[in-house]
């Protein structure tokens, strides 16, 4: 999702030391808060996000994993989505994010407080998370855009996140943020086992040359690393941080009919990466 698209303003109490006001950037992007029916993707993996802000629930006998939380105002919507699928938000044991931006982190602190879940994040996002977005090289110009939060555990590339019968591997995919990451794991239903990639697609900053971004001097090499690494991932199903990035609305069956095959779209993944690679090549370094 291009960084020129912003959300409606919401206000939350800040928890940072200086208690600055949390204010999401202005804009008119209704798809980020528009409701979308929750549904089962494959095995014990479910979509519980909004129309465009993708949030994922992975269930286990020992509790559940929630990846991303959308905007601050989406907390109730996510809770209701989880409940409508027959699960409870209170059973969330681990919280994860694909990137430290307010459109994925907005409700994270509130949900952590409500559930007592452990929040784990890529180590390169630690300072941005603690500042509520203030230290982000791009969105920091808007100040504190989500409630600051301290991860319970910092993760490195290739680390395993384990809960119950699930093991997720974190893949460090920097560029869009310094600690953007993807997750690779396996789910199983009655018929088949699926290797799933929740991909943090490296949307390219295109409004200025990379060499002018002084507070992220390695952005060009980080993007290059991520684009190369993502081309070599082996998977059956791929998803992303935004529904629009993997054509969820075209793949979703009316009424939520169970159809994992719709998300087995390797060609679409490579096409998306090719487009991002072209944007990267065209950007002055």
Total beta-strand segments: 14
According to CATH, what is the class? Alpha Beta
CATH topology: the name is: Metallo-beta-lactamase, Chain A
Q: What is the count of DSSP helices, taking H or I runs of 4+ residues? A: 7
Ends: how far apart? 21 Å
Helicity range: 10-25%
One letter per element, helices H and strands E, the order comes to EEEEEEHEHHEHEEEEEHEHH
Structural class of the secondary structure composition? alpha/beta
Low-confidence stretches: 1-19
Assign the CATH superfamily.
Ribonuclease Z/Hydroxyacylglutathione hydrolase-like
Shape: globular
Strand percentage lies at: 15-25%
How many domains? 1
Mean pLDDT: 92
Spatially, the strands of the biggest sheet line up as 3-4-5-6-7-8-9
Please provide a brief summary of the model.
GO terms for molecular function: hydrolase activity; metal ion binding. The protein is α/β, with parallel strands linked by helices.
């Amino acid at each position: 999702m291009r960084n020129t698209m912003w959300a409606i303003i919401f206000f939350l109490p800040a928890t940072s030391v200086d208690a600055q006001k949390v204010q999401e950037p202005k804009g008119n992007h209704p798809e980020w808060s528009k409701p979308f029916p929750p549904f089962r993707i494959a095995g014990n993996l479910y979509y519980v996000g909004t129309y465009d802000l993708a949030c994922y629930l992975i269930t286990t006998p020992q509790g559940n994993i929630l990846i991303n939380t959308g905007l601050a105002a989406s907390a109730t919507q996510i809770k209701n989505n989880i409940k409508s699928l027959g699960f409870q938000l209170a059973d969330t044991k681990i919280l994860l994010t694909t990137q430290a931006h307010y459109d994925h982190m907005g409700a994270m602190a509130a949900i952590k407080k409500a559930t007592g879940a452990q929040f784990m994040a890529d180590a390169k996002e630690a300072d941005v998370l603690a500042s509520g977005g203030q230290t982000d090289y791009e969105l920091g110009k808007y100040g504190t855009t989500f409630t600051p939060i301290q991860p319970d555990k910092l993760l490195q590339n290739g680390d395993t996140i384990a809960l119950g019968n699930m093991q997720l591997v974190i893949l460090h995919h920097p560029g869009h943020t310094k600690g953007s990451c993807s997750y690779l794991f396996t789910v199983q239903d009655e018929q088949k086992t699926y290797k799933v990639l929740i991909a943090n697609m490296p949307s390219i900053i295109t409004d200025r040359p990379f060499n002018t971004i002084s507070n992220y001097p390695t952005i060009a090499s980080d993007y290059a690393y991520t684009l190369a690494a993502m081309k070599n991932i082996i998977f059956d199903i791929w998803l992303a941080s935004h529904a629009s990035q993997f054509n969820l609305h075209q793949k979703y069956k009316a009424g939520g009919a169970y159809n994992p095959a719709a998300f087995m779209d390797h060609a679409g993944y490579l096409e998306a990466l090719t487009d991002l690679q072209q944007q990267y090549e065209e950007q002055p370094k």
